[in-house]
Amino acid sequence: MDTPLNITPISSWFEGLSLPLIIAGPCSAESEEQVMDAALQLAGIERVKVFRAGIWKPRTRPGSFEGAGEKGLRWLQRVQRETGLLVTTEVATPAHVQMALDYGIDIVWIGARTTASPFTTEQLAVALSHSNIPVLVKNPITPDLELWIGALERFNRMGITKLAAVHRGFYPYEHSRLRNIPKWELAIDLKSRFPDLPILCDPSHIAGRADMVAQVAQHGLNLSLDGLMVEVHPNPSAALSDARQQVSPHFFSQLLQKLIFRDSSSACSEYVDFIEQTRNKIDSIDQQIIELLANRMKLVEQIGEYKRDNNVTVFQLRRWERILESRVEYGERLGLSEEYIKNLLRMVHKESIRRQAEILGSKSQPNSNE
Ligand code: PEP
Ligand code: MN
What we know:
CATH topology of the largest domain: TIM Barrel
Number of helices: 13
Strand order of the largest sheet: 1-2-3-4-5-6-7-8
Helix content: 40-55%
Bound molecules: phosphoenolpyruvate, manganese (II) ion
Largest sheet: 8 strands, parallel, barrel
Low-confidence stretches: 266-270, 362-366
Distance between the termini: 46 Å
Oligomer: single chain
Order of helices and strands: EHEHEHEHHEHEHEHHEHHHH
CATH class of the largest domain: Alpha Beta
Number of domains: 2
Mean pLDDT: 92
Radius of gyration: 24 Å
CATH superfamily of the largest domain: Aldolase class I
């Protein structure tokens, strides 16, 4: 059993905040003009209450735009003064925390790469412990629910009760249609283990592409998540980071109008019931199974092309036997019957043969053994 987290509801963080909490703004603060342009347009959208912009950007490779740094905090202060929006940025070191507090930033978020490090989250929790600032904790890059919970607990133990999780998906080790695999089942598990903990959805980082943001956002809302953090840039194609996934303020405003919001006045307690939650997890897993089957098929096709181009017709009965044997053994270890795995594999294999036969041309006999 988990020790419950001590949580202050979002509606008590600041006056005028309610669920669903909508946070929007560019991936990075790039210039004062870009920040003000985005903020003024977003301030005109009623549902938007918090403006986001990364000041320090954790880039995978050095040399990419690494954020405006301290001067960007002054731009965010201007957003506070001129639009009345609350502002939030990512902090990744105690020095960032100090600067964010000095400049009166309203909310901070912990990025996915930072959540993955218990040493760093502990240091940040200490640095934030005497402030009253709300903290949003993104999930770690890897689908490790305990690591995510551990980070939330570290902040909570330091007295931070204005706490929310942000679900931004997980690094896809296999090719996926989306930038990050949502693995919604993890967000659902987190919600069921900590019903009071608000969870926001970041559809931008899950989708990785502007045209999928709405669909992912709707999925998050359907699961009763408590709000959205969306990347919105005045000129997405010119963005210095995450250009493909950012949407314009106009697009975002239309997107918000199309989204169906559940009545979330008491979203936590009214959280979807057990069967619905479990079905949602199954849906998410099925989606991953289908993506894996598609990845498998691509490899089968590559072998088919190789066979065609090299004129090889190798029949490897041993290969098929080994597939069956190893998968059946693996399945049995996981409590799945031999018959079930064999039937499943026969179906998968039959379709692989059909695809390879197509590639090899109708005159060749299907001789696939993947
Ligand atoms: C971001 O929000 O721009 C960001 C860097 O997010 P994440 O930590 O989820 O990758
Ligand atoms: Mn980003």
